[in-house]
From TrEMBL:
Keyword Transferase: yes
EC number(s) per entry: 2.7.7.77
Protein's name in the database: Probable molybdenum cofactor guanylyltransferase
Catalysis: reaction(s): Mo-molybdopterin + GTP + H(+) = Mo-molybdopterin guanine dinucleotide + diphosphate
UniProt note: domains: The N-terminal domain determines nucleotide recognition and specific binding, while the C-terminal domain determines the specific binding to the target protein.
Domain MobA-like NTP transferase, first and last residues per copy: 6-163
Species whose genome carries this gene: Spirosoma profusum
Any one of the GO BP annotations: Mo-molybdopterin cofactor biosynthetic process
GO cellular component, one term: cytoplasm
Residues engaged in binding GTP: 9-11, 21, 68, 97
Record InterPro entries: MobA-like_NTP_Trfase, Molybde_CF_guanTrfase, Nucleotide-diphossugar_trans
Subcellular localization(s) per the UniProt record: Cytoplasm
Needed cofactors: Mg(2+)
């Protein structure tokens, strides 16, 4: 089984939220730091996936980070950049906008991991489609992601749907809730 690196997807533009979602505080610290702590027990190392602007702001940080290197306006940019950094590792990917995520779901992914498949992910909150922003991507999917982008496909969900992946049922569907705007955040009580 390949080594498992962690990747906190934090490089989005956060246009709907109006501020960097990775810096929002749901657990008394910025979300990217909280998720790093959640991933650390499962991974060899944990990286933040960031954009070029964030890279400037984090120039003095000791946190391991991978700067988006592709011209893709999608979370796929961060995942592809991670595989460019280390194509031999599996990547445990977590989006920074899932404030209800706990070790319960992380445990379920690790226990349900099937390294013979290209990725191990949960069904989404509707129980119909793969949830691409919380899962383990095996090294074999790297070239498939690159080809998909070359073919103009930028949706990680669609790529997962078209390939041989391990799909699991999330222990608590609430943990998959994405908070993308101030109204959703307020409704959540934060």
């Amino acid at each position: 089984m390949s080594k498992l690196n962690g990747l906190v997807l934090a490089g989005g533009r956060s246009t709907r939220m109006g501020e960097d979602k990775s810096l929002l505080r749901y657990h008394e610290k910025p979300q990217r730091e909280h998720l790093t702590e959640l991933l650390r027990p499962y991974c060899s190392v944990v990286f933040w996936s960031i954009n070029a602007v964030q890279a400037i702001d984090l120039a003095d940080s000791n946190q391991l980070r991978i700067v988006d290197t592709f011209e893709v306006n999608s979370p796929l940019n961060g995942i592809l950049s991670a595989f460019q950094y280390d194509a031999e590792a599996a990547w445990f990917v977590v989006a920074c906008d899932m404030p209800l995520l706990t070790v319960q779901s992380l445990d379920a992914l690790v226990k349900g991991r099937n390294p013979a498949k290209l990725a191990t992910v949960f069904y989404d909150s509707d129980g119909q489609l793969p949830e691409p922003l919380l899962g383990i991507y095996e090294p074999a999917i790297g070239p498939i992601l690159q080809q998909a982008v070359a073919d103009g496909l930028h949706s990680p969900r669609q790529i997962l749907q078209q390939n041989d992946i391990q799909l699991l049922t999330v222990p608590d569907v609430q943990e998959l809730i994405n908070i993308n705007d101030p109204i959703a955040r307020a409704q959540l009580g934060f």
